[in-house]
Write a structure and sequence with these properties.
single chain; Butyryl-Coa Dehydrogenase, subunit A, domain 1; Butyryl-CoA Dehydrogenase, subunit A, domain 3; 3 domains; eight-stranded mixed β-sheet
């Protein structure tokens, strides 16, 4: 199956640049992604034609601001985009979610660096921002060394970032904004400047190519680094520290939607082996699917209502309340956990035939669900962090 392309009158490929067009193209791509999903997983990375599809469909430019010529999708629209792609292939959606961070990261860099790394709106981003590396301050910039994990999309990205702790003369350099004893900065470079290490042999999200990468003594100019504490653009895209996390819920929500639809389709032709009851008449099947729909609807409503309220507050320039700060984080945690529960329940409902990789996507979805729930946003520590804020304490997370 191929996906439709749109061209200008001169024959050049037209990349969509509005939320409506980008979302429409994503919906059109879903059948193609479903057809390719098993091969994507087997290849342990996104193949070139899938990356090209995402690029020409405007996925990587989705978060680019309008004043740079981009479509500037809101948090809700970004999440809808990722959710749609996830109904086709979860690994593709995961890489898309990270790849479109190019539009967000550009808001933290000086203009010359923006033009150098993100001048092309369709730049695919990758990298682990957790400060796992070490950046020793030297004249004009930093000497960077480190080994980072979870470089989702690093096999096809145009820009590879790496989080570092900053040192000066061998001692930790305090953060000038927060006063923290160690400064956290993100280094921006090209993927060929690192050594990519093929470590991505995993249970789920196997097609995301989320291998390790490392470097020793790489010089990174000062202007090719940034701090999340110092956005250089105003507006909702960069006004809150969780900008890169807001769209993440689209991955589990889309996966759960695809799993429910798959089992509803199966129910039309299946008969219970023991009782001979058609699945459409089985109370067990009816109850399981109804519960799945109910739980997904509740999780989805929580995600989107929180994002809508947050975006509106950021547009007004309001200082977020503790309730607003925690609502999106809790909804995100809940979406990941709920989606895993839904897929697991459907896997059990379908029974023995769900275990075959070549015959049932439920096997892949269950493994994807378990792997994505190991991300920090889906860990129980989120409950502790948000609870602390709700009770009047200070957050220990830079994204809350």
């Amino acid at each position: 199956m191929t996906t439709p392309e749109t061209h200008d009158v001169d024959g050049s490929l037209r990349i969509p640049n509005t939320a409506e067009d980008i979302l429409r193209r994503a919906r059109e791509a879903v059948p193609f992604l479903r057809e390719r999903a098993a091969g994507i997983e087997a290849g342990r990375r996104l193949p070139e034609d899938v990356v090209a599809l995402l690029r020409r469909n405007g996925v990587f430019r989705a978060a680019a601001p309008k004043d740079r010529g981009g479509p500037e999708l809101t948090s809700v629209q970004q999440t809808e985009l990722i959710e749609t792609l996830a109904t086709g292939d979860v690994s593709t959606a995961w890489c898309s979610m990270i790849g479109m961070d190019s539009g967000i990261y550009a808001g933290y860099l000086e203009e010359d660096a923006v033009q150098e790394f993100y001048g092309d709106l369709d730049t695919a981003n990758s990298g682990w921002i957790h400060p796992q590396g070490r950046a020793e301050r030297v004249p004009g910039g930093y000497r960077v060394s480190g080994h980072w994990r979870f470089g989702s999309g690093s096999t096809h990205c145009d820009v590879l970032v790496a989080g570092c702790r900053v040192f000066k003369d061998g001692e930790p350099e305090p953060d000038p904004v927060t006063g923290d004893p160690v400064q956290w900065r993100v280094m921006v470079a090209r993927p060929h400047q690192y050594e990519l290490v093929d470590t991505w042999f995993t249970t789920g999200l196997a097609g995301s190519g989320s291998g390790d990468y490392r470097v020793t003594d790489l010089f990174v100019p000062e202007e090719h680094s940034f701090s999340f504490q110092v956005p250089r653009r105003t507006g909702p895209l960069h006004a809150a520290p969780d900008a890169i996390l807001r769209k993440m819920s689209g991955v589990p929500l889309g996966m759960a939607r695809a799993a429910i639809d798959h089992v509803r389709d199966l129910a039309g032709t299946r008969v219970d082996r023991e009782s001979g009851t058609p699945w459409t008449d089985s109370p067990r099947v009816q109850s399981t699917l109804a519960r799945a729909e109910m739980e997904l609807a509740a999780a989805r409503a929580s995600v989107y209502s929180g994002l809508e309220a947050q975006w509106a507050a950021l547009e007004r320039g309001d200082e977020p309340t503790a309730q607003q700060r925690t609502a999106t984080a809790l909804a995100r945690y809940h979406a990941f956990r709920t989606a895993r529960n839904i897929v697991s329940a459907l896997f059990d409902l379908v029974g023995g035939s769900s275990v075959y990789r070549e015959k049932s996507p439920l096997d892949r979805w269950l493994r994807d669900a378990n792997t994505m729930c190991q991300h920090a946003v889906a860990q129980d520590s989120i409950l502790e962090l948000t609870g602390q804020v709700l009770l009047g304490g200070e957050s220990r997370s830079p994204f809350l």
